[in-house]
Amino acid sequence: MSNYIPMKKSQITIPVKEIEHSPPHAAKSFWLHDYGAYSANRTLDGGLSCDILVVGGGIAGLSAAWHAARDTSARVVLIESEIIGYGASGRAAGWVMPQFGMDQMSIRRKYGAERSQAAFQYCRRAVRYTREIIETHKLDSDYRHPGLMRVAFDDRWIDGLRSHYEMNREFGADNVLWMDGEAVQSEYSGNKNFKAAMFDPDLGLLNPCKHVRELKGLAERAGVEIFENSPAISLDRIAGGTRVATPRGIIRADKTVIATNAYTHQLEGTLGREMRRLQAPVFARGAVTERLSKEQWKAIDWGSGNALESTLDLFHYMAPTADGRIQFYWIYYGGHSLFGEMQPEVSDEGGQMSLAHLKKIFPVLKDVRIAHNWGGHMSGTRDLVPHLCFLGDERVIYVGGCWGHGLAINHLHGQTISHMLSGRSSELTDFWIVNRQPKKWPIKPFDGIGKQLAWAWLRRRARKQLAGSIFENATARQ
After folding, report:
1. Of the candidates 336, 337, 333, which has an alpha carbon nearest to the alpha carbon of residue 352?
2. pTM of the model as a whole
3. What is the third-level CATH fold of 23-147+202-279+381-441?
């Protein structure tokens, strides 16, 4: 990290004269802005027929399309409502991690140890497979594999962290390391704020916008036809397949994969309405700091470049970026929207609070500022696990609901979907979530009321955990 260059104040704000030339949707995330100029594929104009249609140009959709084109001679078409990288795939943290559904502990409580362990192993396989795709095809994704340090920043949080560690060991993660206070503090220049930690080497980091657009190129080289700015405004079943209408075209497909993730509830048509309550958008917020100086990186001794997260569910997801910033994410000011709206205002308040927490962990960063705030949606399911199933019959496959942990497993889901499309039985299609009947969210208004009560409880629990910790005063000021 010795080549990191401090960001000058003038670099933090985009000059007015440059705004009209900024990349498409540049304000939606740092990753989209940082990517620079991007030329979208043409819009679908007219009618076409294909063997396989994929709706949604995120990681799941592109992985499914690429695998289908690679494994068969089918004509594969993919449509994206905006541009590749517009949704979660261009706004996410870029953590390639072995996480499944809402969280592993909740999955174990709800589905038992056997299914939870199977999910754990599927996710570990997904991390390895994602890395294999990147390295085999030389994708320019800023990929590195530094691992994850899960930290207790308060003595009261150690027992919960220990339970998580023991579950990982029980499920066969022999490479996960427990670190007491002295051991973890030695990794960060003796920083006493680190009370204990669990180090998991099985995590990679990448630039999600660069990566999803590299996947786009990989899919196109395999023969996938991709149309951007082509939203599916109506999806209907017809004899022998499906009919999907866009503003300027019609597609008739023998088989269709729906990979619209947090946007699925907005789909129309008879098929769209079937999926309306399968998932619900969950809003999360992110930010990056200005570039840190060489002296600042040396002072905090974060030289390994690993991701950091605490034992709190709604705060403290942090990692260095490839260009020397610190990115961090939080959900405390997010959650389910009341009516399913997709563009809540991005609050600077939440960003400043999370920045204050970062400075409590690393006091030497007291003068560091935020360079970019943004927000985005992940897909939440009522049954807490991802969905990957046929809808009605084998002509339609629905994939989604990863609770923000889909970067790794959606690469592997693509291979699983390819097997499903071809009618192939395999170890992947035998995974217990595959073709499982999804549990729907309740009808309105009970749906919104229940979600708001649940998130209110989660926030109260987070405030209780923060009380008396190093973060208490930083939180109270917001």
Report:
1. 333
2. 0.92
3. FAD/NAD(P)-binding domain (3.50.50)
